[in-house]
Structure to design on (186 residues):
C-alpha cells in the first residue's frame, strides 16, 4: 500500500477513535473537551504528515530539539496522570458529563508539577505538537501547530472556567499561585 494512502487510513481510524471517545464533548461546544478534540486531530495530522521524515538527519539541531520536546512530553503526561491518580480522587460531576473518567477529580491537585503549572498534560500536548512540527518545518506544519496551540490554549481557558465553577475560590487562589503551561513564565 502506498505510504500516503496508509497514512490517510491511519488518520481516518484515529479520527473515528477520537470522535467516539470525544462524542459527548463534541455535542457541547462549551466544554473543554470540544477544543481538545481539535488539538488531538491537529497532532495526528502533524505526526502522520511528518512520518516519512521522522528519522531523517537524526542528529541535526532541529531533530535533537524535536526529540527533547517529545521526551519531555512523555514525561509530563506520565507525571500528570500519576499525580492526578494519587492525589485527585474520583468524583462524579453532574455538571460535566462529557469529562473523561480521569478528569473528574474530587480534590484540587496542587502537588508535583501541578504546584507550578495548572495544565501539565496540555503542556505535554503542546510539546508533542511542537516536537512533531520540528520534524519538517514548512508552511503547512506551521499553520497546523499554530492551530493546535490555539486549541490547547482555548481548552485550558474553558477548563479553568469549569474548575472555578466546581472549586470556587480555592481554584482562583490556585490560579494566582501557578502558571498555565510554563513554570514561572506563562
Amino acid at each position: 500500500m502506498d505510504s500516503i494512502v496508509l497514512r490517510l487510513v491511519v488518520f481516518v481510524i484515529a479520527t473515528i477513535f477520537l470522535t467516539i471517545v470525544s462524542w459527548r464533548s463534541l455535542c457541547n461546544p462549551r466544554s473543554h473537551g470540544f477544543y481538545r478534540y481539535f488539538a488531538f486531530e491537529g497532532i495526528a495530522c502533524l505526526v502522520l504528515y511528518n512520518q516519512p521524515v521522522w528519522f531523517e538527519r537524526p542528529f541535526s539541531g532541529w531533530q535533537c530539539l524535536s526529540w527533547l520536546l517529545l521526551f519531555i512530553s512523555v514525561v509530563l503526561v506520565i507525571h500528570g496522570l500519576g499525580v492526578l491518580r494519587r492525589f485527585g480522587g474520583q468524583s462524579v460531576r453532574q455538571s460535566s458529563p462529557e469529562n473523561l473518567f480521569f478528569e473528574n477529580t474530587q480534590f484540587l491537585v496542587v502537588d508535583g508539577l501541578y504546584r507550578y503549572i495548572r495544565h501539565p498534560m496540555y503542556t505535554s500536548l503542546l510539546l508533542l505538537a511542537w516536537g512533531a512540527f520540528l520534524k519538517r518545518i514548512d508552511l503547512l506544519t506551521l499553520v497546523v501547530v499554530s492551530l493546535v496551540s490555539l486549541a490547547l490554549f482555548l481548552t485550558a481557558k474553558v477548563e479553568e472556567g469549569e474548575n472555578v465553577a466546581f472549586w470556587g475560590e480555592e481554584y482562583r487562589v490556585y490560579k494566582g499561585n501557578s502558571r498555565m503551561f510554563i513554570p514561572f513564565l506563562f
